[in-house]
Structure formats: C-alpha cells, structure tokens
Write a structure and sequence with these properties.
This protein has 93 residues and is mainly alpha-helical. 40% of the residues lie in helices and 4% in strands. The radius of gyration is 27 Å and the shape is flat. The chain starts with a helix and ends in a 6-residue tail after the last strand.
C-alpha cells in the first residue's frame, strides 16, 4: 500500500511540489492501480499464448543498397546558416 508520505517522497525525488491534498489523492489513485494489477495476477493464463504485439506484424526491412548521398554543396544550398562549409548552429553554452 502506497502512503501519502511515499508519494511526497517520490515528488521530492522528481523535484515536483505536491501538496498534502494532492498527495492523498495520488496515493489513493496509485493504490487503485496496484489493486487492479493484483486482480490481473489472479487470472489463469496457463493455456494462453503470450502476446508480444497486438497486431500480427513482422518487421519489414529494405535491402541495404549503397547509393549516392548529397554532396556538401547540395546539403548546404538550402540554408542561410552556414560557415566554412558546415551548418552553423547557435551556441549551447
């Protein structure tokens, strides 16, 4: 059972401010979810094949064919933000 204190602690770890009223509500909601998982654990699934994907789809891969790529000039021709043959981007730091 998840307590209000545990919700507040997780909020503190996530740097999320949770007031007391919300902590009580979140604790009740999380306990409801855990109760539902408990119900699912009680279902007999011995003769049920595992479902890895809801649709029966296989990965479709294309052939890896070597092809010509854009030249440096072609890659840079549609931008006005270039410098010395490279894309120019804003400084991050």
């Amino acid at each position: 059972m998840i307590t209000k204190d545990e919700v507040e602690h997780v909020g503190w770890l996530a740097r999320i401010e949770i007031d007391e009223q919300d902590a009580d509500s979140y604790a009740a909601q999380l306990n409801s979810v855990l109760d539902y998982f408990g119900q699912l654990d009680e279902v007999d699934t011995d003769n049920v094949d595992p479902t890895y994907h809801v649709a029966d789809v296989m990965n479709v891969f294309r052939e890896d064919i070597v092809a010509d790529s854009l030249s440096q000039k072609e890659a840079l021709e549609n931008t006005k933000h270039k410098q010395d043959g490279h894309f120019k981007a804003p400084k991050i730091m």
